[in-house]
């Protein structure tokens, strides 16, 4: 940091309070202090940011195209990465100000749904920290993922106006706006740049998000002739495109608007990349891919492929085959899920309305691809499976486009990549074995340990003698030598208790529920999906409650079960599960007769900043998806890094977590992928229902009037999903195994030090799950880009 010191930080804050708000330190509100401090820091990094841009100019750059960036808050993370958190805290203390309150006033940038968007955010942090030329391109939604509230146990959605206190960390770059053309409208994409500060590095990377605006603010002629609403209509139509993030985690919806968003993202970003390339290198040739590589985060930005061809052919006057060759060396695709409903398919008709030229180009790509397949001897049936355009219904299959043109296809955990290769995309794997790769997801240790758990971070630093682990997470394995040191384990337990007390306080303030920090915190937080099986967890807890009522002396530790999850507003069953879990919580928390032995809290509005409070406080990380369904999971890694054993199925990255930290330090249960394959054709949930009275008792509460569902038949529908629609996610089949494994947790939790050791060993073995490792693998194995240190 070139010029930062106590004096100029203080004077910076005072200056910005004055020019932005006409305030002084003694009258400033928290959000004003937040903005003033942020602007002070931004001012101090701006030269390094410019220098980083310069440094990256003559080298190969990677671009991460993603419809979602779930960034969360910026201030605390930036303070950590700049290495000045403690200094700022000191300055605030001296001034009688509360830094924590200022951090808490910041709204999350919730421009993503869940894991996929949060992964993009972690990758940005790792890219800057590893000093690699990685730029993020996305959309600056005016409204992020909805805010969640509960009413009578049901989820209500409210608009998320994350910009209400301003967005001091982004800079609007009007001068680099680009025009994006649809068949029926032409709009302006305005970039907002956010600095991504590398941890204790002079490299500052860029996240560039596009806001959609009309070409002119309003049509003066219409306005002048008093056609006010017509004049505003044009503006609204443009503004709408980047107005709101789709809260849909898998399926597709709001078709036309969503397609416009996708096209806006890729068209604006590619024009930006091409402009910069031409400034450096002149006319575009096949050399382009020696300097640019684009990672497509899922299928949402796959329109980038035909759009790049369109620009190269129509605007840059290249031959089609040259343009296609450039694409084949420039694009790589990440697959995030095997859930069928998530694979994007669009009616060609929509493409024809919005961007007919793109459809034309897709058809040409497809016919070239099909003739290749023919020359390789594939038959018509096989060819239709590969075809980018479905012959029967005319739909465009985005994954097929990405795999056929892209030079690399990666899954996000070992099991997931194996499933892609061996079943889901097996035909593609046989066609292009060389394209398939695995890149197990990761999380940034800056946000997910150094920032969110300063107590544990400081202890680790004390034990290891330095902070190198923050940049080189494998160093955590050196902690193993303390795993039998009782003094270390006691201190470790004490830190966990501190984090649990902090969470309990926050939950009391935000949810109005008191929980006991000395109880076992069993936490399941993630988007709400049937495959993630929050339902199984709820049914289990209800069963535990019934057993406790029958036998008040049941030998279990005091437990607090915590849920956090948003349900897609149009996903009825997900919302019913929210309601069911809230009803259970109500029943249990209000029953005096169990003496608070178990409590259930469904925290509202689960988000990145909430996750930062939950993960450090967990005793158990619940990761209980149906085996084969969770591609990777990253929540599991956050909990592990903060020392919670995984209670989970052998699914996604859970498998790798257990491989690293040992089966004996985790609680693995349930059907495995193979078991499910074998069971699938003969599975009958009624067998389990009839043979297990405990299970029958809890499932019956859905239809026997125990809980009321506003007469919407929501609970009847949940009952049907289990009993009359074949229980697709094997909830009944895994119930007993889950229960038996919970008993093992209760038993193991009794021995404090043995428990602490399990938790501690999870921390020691979490090194592999740093997104630094993941990004280094992308650099070496897909992008072929190098570290490029800013030394200016
Ligand atoms: C990490 C994270 C996720 C992903 O959680 P999974 O358990 O991997 O599904 C979702 N939402 C938020 C806010 C997160 O921080």
From TrEMBL:
Q: Which reaction does it catalyse?
A: [(1->4)-alpha-D-glucosyl](n) + phosphate = [(1->4)-alpha-D-glucosyl](n-1) + alpha-D-glucose 1-phosphate
Asked if the record carries the keyword Disulfide bond, the reply is no
Going by the UniProt record, its keywords in alphabetical order are: Carbohydrate metabolism, Glycosyltransferase, Pyridoxal phosphate, Transferase
Q: Which domain of life is it from?
A: Bacteria
The answer on whether this UniProt entry bears the keyword Lipid metabolism reads no
Coiled-coil-forming residues are none
Molecular-function annotations in GO = 1,4-alpha-oligoglucan phosphorylase activity
Q: Give the enzyme's EC designation.
A: 2.4.1.1
Q: Which cofactor does it need?
A: pyridoxal 5'-phosphate
Q: Which Gene3D superfamilies match?
A: Glycogen Phosphorylase B
Q: Name one Pfam family in it.
A: Phosphorylase
* UniProt xrefs under PROSITE patterns: PHOSPHORYLASE
Q: How would you classify this enzyme at the top EC level?
A: transferase
The entry's family comment says: Belongs to the glycogen phosphorylase family.
This molecule's function is given as: Phosphorylase is an important allosteric enzyme in carbohydrate metabolism. Enzymes from different sources differ in their regulatory mechanisms and in their natural substrates. However, all known phosphorylases share catalytic and structural properties. Allosteric enzyme that catalyzes the rate-limiting step in glycogen catabolism, the phosphorolytic cleavage of glycogen to produce glucose-1-phosphate, and plays a central role in maintaining cellular and organismal glucose homeostasis.
For this protein, the record's NCBIfam families field holds: P_ylase
- Protein known as: Alpha-1,4 glucan phosphorylase
**Source species:** Sarcina ventriculi
């Amino acid at each position: 940091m070139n010029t930062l010191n106590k004096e100029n930080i203080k004077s910076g804050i005072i200056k910005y309070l004055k020019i932005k708000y006409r305030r002084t330190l003694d009258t400033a509100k928290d959000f004003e202090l937040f903005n003033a401090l942020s602007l002070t820091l931004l001012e101090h990094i701006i030269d390094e940011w410019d220098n980083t841009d310069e440094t990256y100019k003559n080298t190969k750059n990677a671009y991460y195209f993603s419809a979602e960036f779930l960034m969360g808050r910026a201030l605390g993370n930036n303070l950590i990465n700049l290495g000045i958190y403690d200094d700022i805290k000191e300055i605030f203390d001296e001034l009688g100000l509360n830094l924590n309150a200022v951090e808490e006033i910041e709204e999350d940038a919730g421009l993503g749904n869940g894991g996929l968007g949060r992964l993009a955010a972690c990758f940005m942090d790792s890219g800057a920290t590893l000093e690699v030329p990685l730029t993020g391109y996305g959309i600056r939604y005016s409204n992020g993922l909805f805010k969640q509230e509960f009413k009578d146990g049901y989820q209500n959605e409210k608009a998320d106006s994350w910009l209400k206190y301003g967005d001091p960390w982004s800079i609007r770059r009007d001068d680099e706006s680009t025009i994006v053309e649809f068949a029926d409208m032409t709009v302006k994409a305005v970039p907002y740049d956010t600095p991504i500060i590398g941890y204790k590095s002079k490299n500052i990377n860029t996240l560039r998000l596009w806001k959609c605006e009309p070409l002119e603010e309003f049509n003066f002629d219409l306005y002048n002739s008093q056609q006010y609403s017509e004049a505003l209509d044009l503006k609204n139509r443009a503004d709408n495109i980047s107005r709101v993030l789709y809260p849909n985690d898998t399926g597709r919806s709001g078709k036309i608007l969503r397609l416009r968003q996708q096209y806006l993202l890729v068209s604006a970003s590619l024009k930006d990349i091409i402009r910069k390339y031409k400034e450096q290198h002149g006319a575009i040739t096949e050399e382009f891919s020696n300097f640019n590589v684009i990672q497509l985060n899922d299928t949402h930005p796959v329109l980038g492929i035909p759009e790049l061809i369109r620009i190269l052919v129509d605007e840059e006057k290249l031959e089609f085959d040259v343009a296609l060759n450039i694409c084949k060396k420039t694009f790589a695709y990440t697959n995030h899920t095997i859930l069928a409903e998530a694979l994007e398919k669009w009616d060609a008709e929509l493409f024809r309305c919005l961007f007919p030229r793109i459809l034309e180009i897709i058809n040409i790509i497809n016919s070239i691809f099909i003739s290749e397949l023919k020359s390789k001897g594939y038959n018509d049936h096989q060819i239709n499976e590969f075809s980018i355009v479905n012959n029967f219904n005319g739909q465009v299959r985005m994954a097929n486009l990405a795999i056929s043109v892209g030079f690399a296809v990666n899954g996000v955990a070992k099991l997931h990549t194996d499933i892609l290769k061996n079943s889901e995309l097996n035909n593609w794997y046989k066609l292009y074995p060389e394209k398939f790769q695995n890149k197990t997801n990761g999380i940034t240790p800056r946000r997910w340990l150094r920032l969110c758990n300063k107590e544990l971070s400081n202890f680790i630093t004390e034990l290891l003698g330095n902070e190198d682990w923050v940049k080189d997470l494998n160093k955590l394995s050196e902690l193993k030598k303390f795993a039998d040191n009782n003094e270390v384990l006691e201190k470790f337990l004490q830190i966990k208790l501190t984090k649990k007390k902090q969470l309990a306080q926050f939950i009391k303030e935000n949810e109005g529920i008191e929980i006991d920090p000395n109880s076992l915190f069993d936490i399941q937080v993630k988007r709400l999906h049937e495959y993630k099986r929050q339902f199984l967890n709820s049914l289990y807890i209800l069963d535990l409650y019934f057993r406790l009522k029958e036998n008040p002396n049941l030998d279990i530790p005091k437990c607090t079960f915590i849920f956090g999850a948003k349900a897609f507003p149009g996903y009825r069953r997900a919302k019913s599960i929210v309601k069911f879990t809230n009803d259970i919580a109500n029943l249990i928390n209000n029953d005096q007769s169990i003496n608070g032995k178990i409590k259930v809290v469904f925290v509202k509005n689960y988000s990145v900043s909430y996750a930062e409070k939950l993960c450090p406080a967990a005793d158990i990380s619940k990761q209980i998806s149906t085996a084969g369904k969770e591609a990777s999971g990253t929540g599991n890694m956050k909990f592990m890094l903060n020392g919670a054993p995984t209670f989970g199925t052998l699914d996604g990255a859970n498998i790798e977590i257990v491989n690293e930290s040992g089966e004996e330090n985790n609680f693995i249960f349930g059907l495995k992928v193979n078991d499910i394959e074998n069971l699938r054709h003969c599975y009958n949930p009624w067998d389990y229902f009839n043979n297990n009275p405990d299970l029958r008792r809890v499932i019956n509460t859905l239809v026997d009037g125990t809980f009321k569902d506003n007469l919407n038949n929501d609970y009847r529908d949940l009952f049907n999903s289990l009993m009359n629609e074949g229980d697709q996610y094997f909830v009944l089949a895994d119930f007993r195994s889950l229960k038996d494994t919970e008993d093992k947790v209760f038993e193991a939790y009794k021995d404090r030090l043995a428990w602490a050791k399990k938790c501690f060993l999870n921390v020691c073995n979490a090194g592999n799950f740093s997104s630094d490792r993941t990004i280094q693998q992308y650099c070496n194995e897909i992008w072929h880009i190098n570290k490029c240190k800013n030394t200016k």
